[in-house]
Amino acid sequence: MFRWALIFAVIALVAALLGFGGIAGLSAEFAKILLIIAAVLFVVAFLFGRGRRSIP
């Protein structure tokens, strides 16, 4: 998910440099949304993935 956010951020930067404002804004919004979702999923996985494990 972080990978997709980074890809959309790079697309936004390239589009902004080339003068495509609409595409740059849309890609930046997608990157921001994906980054937030990825961060929330990371925190949830970190908190709930640390269950008790018995040592054999």
Q: What order do the SSEs take from the amino end to the carboxyl end, as H and E?
A: HH
Domain tally: 1
**What is the 3D form?**
rod-shaped
N-to-C terminal Cα separation, in Å?
Answer: 35 Å
| Tally of separate helices | 2
The fraction of residues assigned to DSSP E strands is under 5%
Low-pLDDT runs: none
Mean of residue pLDDT values: 88
Find the structural class using helix and strand composition: mainly alpha
Give the C-alpha Rg.
17 Å
The main pleated sheet reads as: none
Classify the oligomer.
single chain
- Helical amount: over 70%
Can you count the beta strands? 0
Q: Would you mind describing this structure in some detail?
A:
The protein has helices at 2-18, 21-48. It has 56 residues and is an all-alpha fold. It has one domain. Helix 1 runs antiparallel to helix 2 (21-48). The relative contact order is 0.16. The model has no long low-confidence stretch (mean pLDDT 88).
